[in-house]
């Protein structure tokens, strides 16, 4: 299987990536070779929208045209052409988790008091029952969320399941290790990270009822920028979910990952905030990906052999 382009230039560049001695470039080529969840109709639509130029340039154009779309549009991720990756119904009371780079948005939106002010007001909100600052903190943070939501587009949102990550979430240094467990390296530390938790039912509620079969999908290599920290999962992995690359290199097994349609955040979704000075980096990428492949092949022997 794998993602095979009709276009000669795209195919040649993908093959060159797969044979590269660079761990990062080689990983991006391997992702294309191992991707099993891009249906033929979506692949053809991708090549049509990508236009001419280098593979990286074409992919960037596709993301702008069909993935990172303005609110009110539906990304290709959740269109019928992505039927091999669309995820069956998920029980509505399950909790989803995301880690957001709050520091970027605090700086971008010019939050009053900047990062220290955000931390202070979030702490005041959490202890509002015993402090006079609680109502003002709620007002300022609520204004921040309104402005943040206004800036966000409708690109697919990566999320994991809270029940599979309880130990990582409960750890006092969750901001260092939870992103790494989810295959995320945020740039430009020091960081201010936010832990977002919300129910599957909230995603379904933001999705037209007629589209409930297309609210969630397994991540594919086409759903974000080409990233060596992403790793495709087998098409047979039930129930059409991904498995993020563990950058800690310590987890005994895989956790599930899905994409879902855009939802606006509320202040109630933010359950923890943490400053991180020394986040976990990508480490030995070849070793981490080989370990991950071993775990994937435990459920699907011969995957991407």
Distance between the termini: 10 Å
Number of helices: 11
Q: Mean pLDDT across all residues, rounded? A: 95
β-strand percent reads 5-15%
The helical percent reads 25-40%
Q: Which H/E pattern describes the elements?
A: HHHHEHHHEHHEHEEEH
The main β sheet shows up as: 6 strands, antiparallel
Secondary structure class reads alpha+beta
- Say how many strands there are: 6
Name the overall outline: globular
The strand order across the widest sheet is 4-5-2-1-3-6
Query: Which segments are poorly predicted (pLDDT under 50) over 5 or more consecutive residues?
Result: none
Radius of gyration, whole Å = 20 Å
Features:
single chain; 6-stranded antiparallel sheet
Please outline the helices and strands.
Elements lengths: L7 H11 L4 H12 L5 H11 L4 H13 L27 E7 H8 L4 H13 L7 H18 L5 E5 L4 H5 L3 H8 L9 E9 H6 L10 E2 L39 E4 L9 E7 L8 H15 L6
Antiparallel strand pairs: 1-2, 1-3, 2-5, 3-6, 4-5
Helix pairs in contact: 1-2, 3-4, 6-7
Can you give a write-up of this model?
The structure is a single chain. With 305 residues, the protein is α+β, with helices and mostly antiparallel strands. The protein is built from 11 helices and 6 strands. The protein has helices at residues 8-18, 23-34, 40-50, 55-67, 102-109, 114-126, 134-151, 166-170, 174-181, 200-205, 285-299, and strands at 95-101, 157-161, 191-199, 216-217, 257-260, 270-276. It has a 6-stranded antiparallel sheet, sandwiched between helices. α1 packs across α2, α3 (40-50) packs across α4 and α6 packs across α7 (134-151). The protein is globular. 36% of the residues are buried.
């Amino acid at each position: 299987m794998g993602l095979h382009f009709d276009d000669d230039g795209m195919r040649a560049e993908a093959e060159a990536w797969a044979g590269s001695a660079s761990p990062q470039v080689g990983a991006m080529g391997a992702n294309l070779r191992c991707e099993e969840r891009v249906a033929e109709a979506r692949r053809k639509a991708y090549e049509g929208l990508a236009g001419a130029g280098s593979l990286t340039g074409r992919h960037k154009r596709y993301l702008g045209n069909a993935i990172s779309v303005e609110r009110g549009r539906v990304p290709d991720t959740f269109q019928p052409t992505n039927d091999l990756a669309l995820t069956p119904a998920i029980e509505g009371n399950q909790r989803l988790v995301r880690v957001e780079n709050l520091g970027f948005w605090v700086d971008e939106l010019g939050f009053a008091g900047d990062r220290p002010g955000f931390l202070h007001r979030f702490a005041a909100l959490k202890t509002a029952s015993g402090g006079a600052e609680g109502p003002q903190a709620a007002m300022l943070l609520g204004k921040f969320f309104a402005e943040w939501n206004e800036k966000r587009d409708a690109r697919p949102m990566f999320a994991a399941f809270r029940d599979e990550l309880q130990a990582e979430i409960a750890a006092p240094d969750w901001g260092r290790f939870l992103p790494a467990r989810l295959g995320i390296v945020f740039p430009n530390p020091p960081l201010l990270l936010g832990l977002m938790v919300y129910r599957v039912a909230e995603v379904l509620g933001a999705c037209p009822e007629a589209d409930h079969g297309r609210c969630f999908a397994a991540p594919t290599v086409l759903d974000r920028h080409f990233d060596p920290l992403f790793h495709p999962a087998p098409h047979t992995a039930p129930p059409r979910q991904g498995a993020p690359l563990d950058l800690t290199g310590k987890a005994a097994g895989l956790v599930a990952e899905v994409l879902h349609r855009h939802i606006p955040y509320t202040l109630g979704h933010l359950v923890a905030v943490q400053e991180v000075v020394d986040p976990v980096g990508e480490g030995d990428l070849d070793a981490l990906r080989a370990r991950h492949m071993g775990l994937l092949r435990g459920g699907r022997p011969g995957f991407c052999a």
